[in-house]
Automatic annotation (TrEMBL):
This is Envelope biogenesis factor ElyC. GO terms for biological process: Gram-negative-bacterium-type cell wall biogenesis; peptidoglycan metabolic process. Pfam families: DUF218. The chain crosses the membrane at residues 14-34, 41-60. It comes from Zobellella endophytica. The keyword Transmembrane applies. Keywords: Membrane, Transmembrane, Transmembrane helix.
Length: 263
């Protein structure tokens, strides 16, 4: 199981834009050295032009906006909520740093929204996910410490530090929220895949997306904002990662269906 998890992580990382396009670029250079001029130039131009486009704001936003707009933000209402689920995110549990500095950007957004909604629904449990991943403490533990520091009673917290990814979190959380009204908090771009995985686990929480990336200002933007930037490449990578994950889930489903038909 651990080997499969690591293999999936390695494959997913290698198929992200930067390593994939760098590989194509170096392959193009190699072909040029072999005097395969046409193929080499095509690969070089393809890799460089794609990298350039992915690092621009319009392209990055066009990639991630369809994911982020799938589920609207949660509006606090009168109907009671019994559980608030916060999915894990990358963390670096360095005790020399302030607590919030040990969480990544996604983790800060997620737990902040979780605490906000926990104050809005004071009877709800706060179920926190995320494993350690080689760090000294899991993101679930760090989330819990943040929640307590921001006024949430420890008795309302349930920490799930074992699940390694969203699929495992969905399988672990689904039995806990059976027959209960639950909110699912994760990054807006990740929400479609998270909801798909929860549905596959037999759960139907309500979406409460946060950490939106495709933000468009109403003000006129200067032309230099259209230049390639690393943050836009990172935004494209987030979207690319989610599309890969959705594709992997779809492929797994098709393979399982096919296997059942052959029985």
């Amino acid at each position: 199981m651990e080997t499969m998890f690591l293999a999936k992580k390695w494959l997913g990382s290698l198929l992200l834009p930067l390593p994939l396009l760098l590989f194509l670029g170096f392959l193009g250079l190699f072909l040029l050295l072999l005097r395969q001029k046409r193929s080499g130039i095509v690969l070089l131009l393809l890799s460089l032009s794609t990298l350039l486009l992915l690092a621009t704001r319009p392209v990055a936003n066009a990639l991630i906006a369809p994911l982020e707009s799938r589920y609207p933000p949660h509006l606090i209402g009168a109907e009671p909520v019994q559980d608030i689920l916060v999915l894990g995110a990358a963390q670096v549990a360095d005790p020399r740093l302030p607590l919030l500095s040990q969480l990544g950007q996604a983790g800060i957004y997620r737990i902040a929204e979780g605490v906000r909604l926990a104050h809005a629904y004071p009877q709800a449990r706060l179920i926190l996910g995320g494993y350690a991943g080689g760090e000294g403490r899991s993101s679930a533990e760090l989330y819990g410490e943040v929640a307590v520091a921001l006024g949430i009673a420890p008795g309302r917290l349930l920490l799930l530090s074992e699940p390694k990814d969203t699929a495992e979190e969905a399988r672990a959380m689904a039995p806990l929220i059976a027959g209960r009204r639950a909110l699912l908090i994760t990054s807006a771009g990740h929400m479609p895949r998270a909801m798909t995985l929860f549905a596959a686990a037999g759960a139907a929480p309500l979406a409460a997306p946060v950490d939106h990336q495709a933000k468009e200002s109403n003000a006129a933007l200067p032309l230099y904002t259209y230049l390639p930037q690393a943050r836009y490449l990172w935004r494209s990578e987030l979207a690319w990662h989610e599309y890969l994950g959705l594709g992997w889930h779809w492929l797994n489903g098709r393979l399982l269906d096919r296997a059942q038909q052959l029985r």
